[in-house]
Amino acid sequence: MASQPTVSLKTPAPLLRLLLLLSATTGMLDAASILCLGKVFTANMTGNVVFLAFAVAGAPGFSPLPFIVALAAFIGGAMVAGRIWRTRGSHLLRDWLVVAAGIETVLLLLAALVATRFDIARGEPLWKLATILALVSAAMGFRNAVVRQLKVPDLTTTVLTLTITGIASDSRLAAGPSPNLPARLGAVVAIFAGAVVGALLVLHAGLAATLALTAALVLVGTLVFARHPLMADLKR
Can you state the angle between helices 45-56 and 64-87, rounded to 10 degrees? Predict the structure, then answer.
């Protein structure tokens, strides 16, 4: 039986590196939101659905509002990305990636601005908590919709469940061919490393600085990798 094609045969190296960088920024943003915004995910909506269920059931320590805000904003961001994808003029992939990164960066910088003088310990004022969650979740929803259109296997940049499942179920120990193993492991390492960096930044520099630095990484990384010569003629 022929082995499955590896992601490297289909996807240019600059795009792979960009997706790994974006995976690391996901770890940074989820570290910021979980540590500073009431244990709410901004990229992983599965966790928010489960936590919202806990809140509805009356479990102590869970309030429905933050999870509803995150879910609604994430959905809104994904819808906007889907509409822009289908209506934007340029057919070059690199142009679309730069536009998408610009939108995500603006949302994250606005969140960083709102996060100034936000009381993390008290979660106050409430309007700032809700606004930061909405802006970051919208950015992640937008990104998820963008990356989904790229159809790069095992590099969603935000979710690892299927990636880790693939590592195990397709491994040599499971009599599998271990396709895409470097990309799969890279995604896991990137999100883990990003979460470590994000946690350290939150603890030592604060929420606003973490959001601002993440925004800078998204924009600069996209400009560098999207403008690589190997990306020049790719269509979206």
Answer: 150
